[in-house]
Amino acid sequence: MGLEDAGGRTALEIAVEAIAGGVTMIQLRDKQAPLRQVLEQGARLRDLCRGHGVAFIVNDRVDVAVLLDADGVHVGQDDIPGAEARRLLGSGKLVGISAGTMEEAEWAMANRADYLGVGPVYATATKQDAGEAIGTDLIGAITDRWKIPVVGIGGIGADNAAPVIKAGAAGVAVVSAITRQANPMQAARQLADVVRQALK
Ligand SMILES: Cc1ncc(COP(=O)(O)OP(=O)(O)O)c(N)n1
Ligand SMILES: Cc1ncsc1CCOP(=O)(O)O
Ligand SMILES: [Mg+2]
After folding, report:
1. Run of H or E including 75
2. Over the range 26-58, which residues count as b (16 or more CB within 10 Å of their CB) and which as e?
3. Atom 5 of ligand 2 has which residue's CA nearest to it?
4. Residue 126 known to bind ligand
């Protein structure tokens, strides 16, 4: 799950609710806040996640992941290459890599990704440069070819998460389906229920 401040609530407040609703991973994704603020907010999120056995991942910034002793980092195709991220992070940390095409998935696999974030599965307003929705076929093609956990991302909510899992994803990553909801805990719970059911 990615997090952004939303509806006057802090990321930490939303994270508390999301964890109560059943999310298993939280990603710190803040491209705007000053670095000092990101580090302060990140330390609080990390402590919250640790206290609940939830994985804490930092988006883009390997330096921030190292400083926060995060569980890992998520990098895209234009970010620091996954293999370099791993060198900086050290062993025992997760490196997630984004892919929107089979070629990008090949690059991610060559960079020894621990998991792939594949999308945007559906149209999203959260990431302006996400590109066109790609649907669920690539998830099936990747999971047929490699034994790697894939999470679908982009425009996913409780209403459309099941086909993403049925295509082969191990989970879904969402922003607005939790952060922009009036009741993030209920939204997370509904989503987790749908994912659990579809994984059966
Ligand atoms: C789980 C997950 N999957 C994909 C992304 C997108 O990463 P990226 O392509 O680098 O885009 P930004 O998130 O950095 O805008 C992600 N963050 N998480
Ligand atoms: C970070 C990211 N990467 C691909 S789509 C996306 C945004 C996901 O946000 P939402 O779940 O609100 O569509
Ligand atoms: Mg990125």
Report:
1. strand 72-75
2. bbbbbeeeeeeebbebbeebbebbeeeebebbb
3. 154
4. yes
Number of domains in the chain: 1
d(CA 22, ligand 3 centre) in Å: 25
* Distance in angstroms (rounded) separating the CA atoms of residues 113 and 99: 11
**CATH (domain of 54):** 3.20.20.70
Measure the CA–CA gap between 187 and 175, rounded to whole angstroms: 11
Segments forming the whole domain that contains residue 160: 2-199
pLDDT on residue 1: 45
Distance CA 122, CA 37 (A): 31
166 belongs to the catalytic site: no
pTM to 2 decimals?
0.96
CB neighbours (10 Å) of residue 23?
Answer: 26
Q: Which two tokens stand for residue 136?
A: 């669920």
Residue 184, pLDDT above cutoff 60: yes
